[in-house]
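Troubleshooting log. The previous structure file for this entry was overwritten by mistake, so regenerating from the original sequence record. Sequence copied from the archived sheet and checked twice against the printout by T.R.
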Amino acid sequence: MRGKVSIFLMVGFVVSICATTTLAQVEEQKATLFLCWDVLVKPSKVVEFEAATKDEVALFSKHKFPYPWSSASTDDLHYYFLIPVDKFADIDNIYKALDETQKKMGAEYQALMKRFSGTYKYTRMYIWYLNHELSYTPENPRLKVGEEKYLYYSYLYFKQGMEKEAEEIAKKWKALYKSKNIPDRYYLWIGDIGTEMPVYCIAGQGKSAADFFSEGEKNHKLLGEEAMALREKTLKLCRKIEQKTGRPRPDLSLIPFSEREK
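Regenerated output below.
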């Protein structure tokens, strides 16, 4: 998103998609709206893209930009940047703040935009809801927020007209996890504008890939046959399923200005 809107708005989802600073701030809410942009970076330009993004974070921090963003990257070279908003009308306020901040930056901003040129294939904008009511967090999570260095996303694309059934299945999964006291959390995101609706994204985490899958085997045994039966019901509702792996990128994120002041 070069030009009027800065690269930091480029988020694909998810995401995750599990941006720890932002998620901690909205944990008590039922659902949280996120403005997301997805940037597909060219393999040969990853170093340049990340270097420019880090300098962008520093520049926006220097000029006290009021809206934080959280970042993640996936192994297929998608970079995601997420900004939480209370309602759709707040997006206009973000654009207004961008215009004002970019004017303050002047030549610094223009020089930075030139560095991004040619580093990515495309950008896409999405709106996602982080639904806390359908997400699962145990009373004593195995991992603390910040220890989750590995991200695993499952995208469930449901058949048209199956939104209610999808919600009911999500509630049953959460109830099953709770009944078995599964120690690992997951976040459930619901796709909105710009996504291939109806779609859920289930975001799981681990210390590493090895940790995620080894603990997953333990959880699978705890969930037992009930999970197998529920999985079969879930698959019957789906028209497509995709998976992605990645990691949170705090080095490419802008924390809230109030936190930077501490």
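The chain has two domains: 7-128+249-255, 130-247. Archived copy saved in two places this time.
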